[in-house]
Amino acid sequence: MTEITRDVVVIGAGAAGTTAANELRKAGLSVAVLEARDRVGGRVWTDTIDGAMLEIGGQWVSPDQHALVETIDELGLETFSRYRDGDSVYVGPDGTASRFTGEMFPVAPETERVIAEIIERLDAMVAEIDPDRSWAHPKAEEWDKITWDAWLRAQTDDDEAVRNLAFATGSAMLTKPTHAFSLLQSLLMAASAGSYSHLVDADFILDKRVVGGLQQVPLLLAERLGDDVFLDEPVRFLEWTADGVIARADSMTVRARHAILAHAPVLYERISFVPPLPRRQQALHQHLSMGFVIKVHAVYDRPFWREQGLAGTAFSPYELCHEAYDNTNDEDERGTLVAFVSDRNADDLFSLSAEERRERILESLSHYYGPEAKNPVVYYESDWGSEEWTRGAYAASFDMGGLARYGADLRQPVGPIHFACSDMAGTGYQHVDGAIRMGRAAAAAIVERARG
Predict the structure, then answer these.
(1) Who has the most CB within 10 Å: 227, 329, 337, 444?
(2) Distances (CA, A) of 152 to 94, 108, 223
């Protein structure tokens, strides 16, 4: 068993952990980053599958994600815009596919009016929310007691309007059924992106990608740390006192003055804390859970949908694949579609064989793009729910009442132990941008302590 001593031990080599470690090194502190997986990146993973480069995990960059944009620029990486020239496709409740342009789905005029009115109402509510202190809003407890679905249905009896409004934070982002989380949790999701309007604007929220893949961000940050990053080292025990920590992994032990847990909070239970974490943290973490989404990659010999004048952007709250986009790599002759199946639909699909699952997903894509969508040359499903060191996607969110009750404690250090990941971000919540922000914040808190 190797034993080393550092100022800080960082557990997790995703964007939060590698950011924190670099910030600590800049401040003159020594670090060791212990990663359970055999790779750097966490929920950001760019891989080559059957000759096709695919973004298995997070991939998009929006203009408001300033921490991520700064890091991309500082690392010397380049970005390219998501292809969006042409019409989008919407499949309505009767199964009819309609082409449209702009942000509003091609629904009946009365449904369009209702959607616009409720979005305006939501934008006004979101404007009152501080994403870093959502629990501090005067109505936080009230809004945390009503489900997102119930609130929407109290606004209108137009089911199509409700389904289209609900899916932006439900299926699309939190990846949970809309009856399983609160209005407050939904408002936080929107506030983290600046407004509800931003959240439903695909051209804004899914703006650019990194040439060569987003995983380069944590990979390049890890490169700067050199031999201080240790892979295949899941931390099993974390002993802590007011004076420091001892982290015990499979083949090494790190003694340090501080620790940063830079991974999803649903994995805290994998670590035996000695002594146990305080009762409030114990309760808090039981009220957080991951969503579930299948990210589908379908690669074709060419982006055939462009020949039809389609942008590749598709939506429907009635389809198995509730949204899909042109995800063709920069300067790639082949065309790639990325689609998403979430919450209960994803559960149902995994009760099927792989062949049946593929058939049903491609059938759904054909409703948007035509029969040619059924014949990709490469097909792959990102299943983060079966990833031992992730256990869901995209990130953790609170159950009913949990955010107002425990949100203020989410990022609070416990003695020498600090917490940093996208799951607990305000601005940039659930995104790499949020992971970077949390990594910076945890490092800054430790540096302040060290200097104080």
Answers:
(1) 337
(2) 22, 18, 47
312 touches 203 (CB < 8 A): no
Torsion 363-365-370-376 (CA) sign: negative
352 three-state secondary structure: coil
Say what the pTM is.
0.97
Measured CA angle at 384 (ends 34, 20), to 5 deg: 30
The predicted-structure confidence for 84-93, as pLDDT tens digits, reads as follows 999 999 999 9
Task: For residue 191, give the nearest of 228, 143, 236 by alpha carbon.
Answer: 143
Encoding tokens for residue 22? 């670099």
Question: What homologous superfamily does CATH list for 107-200?
Answer: Guanine Nucleotide Dissociation Inhibitor, domain 1 (1.10.405.10)
pLDDT in tens, 253-262: 999 999 999 9
Sign of CA dihedral 315, 319, 325, 326: negative
Helix (H) or strand (E) holding 68, with range, is: helix 66-74
Cα–Cα distance measured from residue 115 to residue 107, given in angstroms and rounded to the nearest whole number: 10
Tokens coding 308: 């039809």
- Strand 87-91 relative to strand 288-290, pairing: unpaired
| Residue boundaries of the structural domains of the chain | 2-42+215-277+414-451, 46-84+205-213+292-386, 107-200
For 2-20, what is the mean pLDDT?
98
Alpha-helical (H) ranges within 379-431 are: 402-406
Q: Look at domain 2-42+215-277+414-451 and name its CATH class.
A: alpha beta
The answer to whether residues 49 and 380 touch, using CB atoms and an 8 Å cutoff, is: yes
- 242 Cβ contact partners less than 8 Å away, ≥ 6 residues apart: 415, 416
Contacts 24+ apart (CB under 8 A), 110-119: 110/158, 111/158, 111/160, 111/161, 114/155, 114/156, 114/158, 114/161, 115/161, 115/164, 115/165, 118/152, 118/155, 118/156, 118/161, 118/165, 119/165, 119/196, 119/197, 119/200
**Of 15, 442, 2, nearest in space to 258 by CA:** 442
Q: How far apart are CA 259 and CA 414, in angstroms?
A: 10
